[in-house]
């Protein structure tokens, strides 16, 4: 399974502007949600210094979680993603990467929840649809997996490096849903050749 990591926010990226393409693996959110930090001197207004400090903590936590996941330290990554989500619960990229971490830990049902939450936060988050398709396939929901992978293809750039793999998975999943589950040898389960 290819895991598509989405790098995290950088300090100072909380300004406006068009959102990045969801399909690019190097995309960083332009509007990373930063939790409100109250400064008593400003009576409830968030100071620039406090906002920058939170943004820097978020960026460090996100980068650490990505490194752990990329390094195969999935249990540690799970803890790190929880920390990121505590700092920025509405950051779709964090939900997506938490989902991929859970998939790596063999927890497709939990992963499905995080992929769906990322989609609820940003419907065009292509990587969330890709991960959801993988999770649904592991949960034996082939029709749902095909739908989610089609959504991935709808939201991603046609030249995205995972687009061809997505089309291939759809063809494989369609074939499996037509012919039924297959054994490792390629024979249909229950047939004389599968015994």
Describe the structure.
α3 runs parallel beside α5 (126-138). The chain is elongated. Residues 7-43 and 182-187 have low confidence and may be disordered. The protein contains 7 helices and no strands. The protein has one domain (40-178): Tetratricopeptide repeat domain (Serine Threonine Protein Phosphatase 5, Tetratricopeptide repeat, Alpha Horseshoe), CATH 1.25.40.10. Helix content is 55%, strand content 0%. By secondary structure, it is mostly helical.
Topology:
Layout: H1 48-70, H2 74-87, H3 92-104, H4 108-121, H5 126-138, H6 142-155, H7 163-179
Largest sheet: none
Shape descriptor: elongated
Structural class, please? Answer: mainly alpha
Specify the CATH architecture.
Answer: Alpha Horseshoe
N-to-C SSE string, H for helix and E for strand: HHHHHHH
CATH topology: Serine Threonine Protein Phosphatase 5, Tetratricopeptide repeat
The tally of beta strands, per DSSP, is 0
Q: State the helix count.
A: 7
Task: Give the low-confidence spans.
Answer: 7-43, 182-187
Report the end-to-end length measured between terminal Cα atoms.
28 Å
**How much strand content do the residues show?**
under 5%
Summed up, the domain count is: 1
Instruction: Give the CATH level 1 class.
Output: Mainly Alpha
CATH superfamily: Tetratricopeptide repeat domain
Q: Roughly what percent helix? A: 55-70%
What is the radius of gyration? 19 Å
Query: What's the rounded overall pLDDT mean?
Result: 77
């Amino acid at each position: 399974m290819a895991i598509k990591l989405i790098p995290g926010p950088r300090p100072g990226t909380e300004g406006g502007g068009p959102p990045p393409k969801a399909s690019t693996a190097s995309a960083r959110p332009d509007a990373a949600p930063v939790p409100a930090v109250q400064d008593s001197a400003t009576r409830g207004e968030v100071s620039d210094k406090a906002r920058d400090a939170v943004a820097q903590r978020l960026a460090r936590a996100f980068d650490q979680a990505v490194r752990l996941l990329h390094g195969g330290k999935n249990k540690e990554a799970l803890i790190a993603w929880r920390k990121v989500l505590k700092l920025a619960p509405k950051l779709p990229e964090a939900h997506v990467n938490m989902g991929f971490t859970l998939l790596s830990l063999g927890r497709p049902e939990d992963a499905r929840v995080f992929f769906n939450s990322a989609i609820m936060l940003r419907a065009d988050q292509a990587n969330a649809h890709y991960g959801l398709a993988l999770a649904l396939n592991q949960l034996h929901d082939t029709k749902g997996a095909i739908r989610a992978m089609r959504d991935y293809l709808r939201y991603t750039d046609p030249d995205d490096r995972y687009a061809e793999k997505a089309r291939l998975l759809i063809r494989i999943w369609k074939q499996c849903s037509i012919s039924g589950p297959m054994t490792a040898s390629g024979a249909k389960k229950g047939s004389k050749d599968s015994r």
